[in-house]
Specification:
This protein is α/β, with parallel strands linked by helices and 317 residues long. Helices cover 49% and strands 15% of the residues. Strands 1, 2, 3, 4, 5, 6, 7 and 8 form an 8-stranded mixed sheet that branches. It is globular, with a radius of gyration of 21 Å.
Length: 317
Amino acid sequence: MEYLEFELPIKELEEQLDKCEIIGKESGVDVSESCQNIEKKLLKTKTDIYKNLTAWQRVQLSRHPSRPYTLDYINFLAGGTFMELHGDRTVYDDKAMVGGLGKIGDQSFMFIGQQKGYNTKTRQYRNFGMSNPEGYRKALRLMKMAEKFGIPVITLLDTPGAYPGLEAEERGQGEAIARNIFEMTKLKTPIITVVIGEGASGGAVGIGVGDRVYMMENTWYSVISPESCSSILWRSWEHKEEAAEALKLTAEDMKKQKIIDGIIKEPLGGAHFDRVTAFEEVKKTIIKAYDQLKDLSDKELIKQRMDKYISMGEYKG
C-alpha cells in the first residue's frame, strides 16, 4: 500500500502493529494487549485524519495509485457478462475510453468510462485516461446503440481532462465533446453517472450529462484542476491547495450547489482500502437510481433531464 503525505501517521502505526504481531509470534510472549492498544490508536488516528480532509487532500485521494479504476468497477458490477465494444467507426479505437454491454442482475446496461493505467506501460497505452475525439465519438456511438435497443447507460468519470494535444484539436476535440453534451441531453434512455475519481473539465462532462449524477466521497468535479487554476491565477503550482478550496470541487460542495444528486460513501481511508465495499455501494446506488427512472416515458425523462441542467446556476438575490 502506498501512503500519501498526510497518511504517514497511519503508516507508522501500521508498521508498529506489524512489529508487535511478529514479536508475539517469534517470542511466544503474549503481546495481545499491546497490539490491541495500537489497533485502537490506529483506528482513532484514521478517523481523525479522514473526517477532516481538506479539498486538496481529497484531490490527492482521488488520484491514489491503488484506487480502483473504471474497468475494476465494471468487472465487479457486470461480472462475467461484460462485453467490451471497440472503435468509433471513423478513425480508430481510443484506449482511454472504454465501453460495452453488461448486466447487473437481469438488467442490461451500456457501461462507458475513462480508463487509466496501473503502471508506466498501461498508463501510456491508456493515454493516462485522457481521451481523444475518437473516444468521445465511440462513447456517443455506444449511447446511440443503447438508445436504439432501450438499454440504460452508466457512465463512470475518471479523467484529468480530455487530451489537449494539437492532433486532438485538429480532429475536432471541442466539437466531439460539445456533440456528446448535446446528444446526451435528449437521449431517450436513462443515464446514470458516477464520478469515481477525477472529474476534470469538458473531458468529464463529455460523458457526464446524466439523469442522476453521483460522486464518490473522495472524488472531485470541476472545470479545471487545482494545479492549472493555480498556474493561471498565481503563475505557479504552489497555490494548488488554495485553488482546491476556492474551486468548491468536492462531493460535499457539489451536493450543496445541487450539481449532483448524491454522495456515495467510501470505506474509511478511501475506495482502495476496501474495494468490494466501495463496489457494493456503487452498485446499490445505480440500482436505486435505475428504479427511479425505469418507468418514466421518453418525454418525461428528457424533460426532467433538461430541467435539471437548465436550473443549475440560477441565482435569486
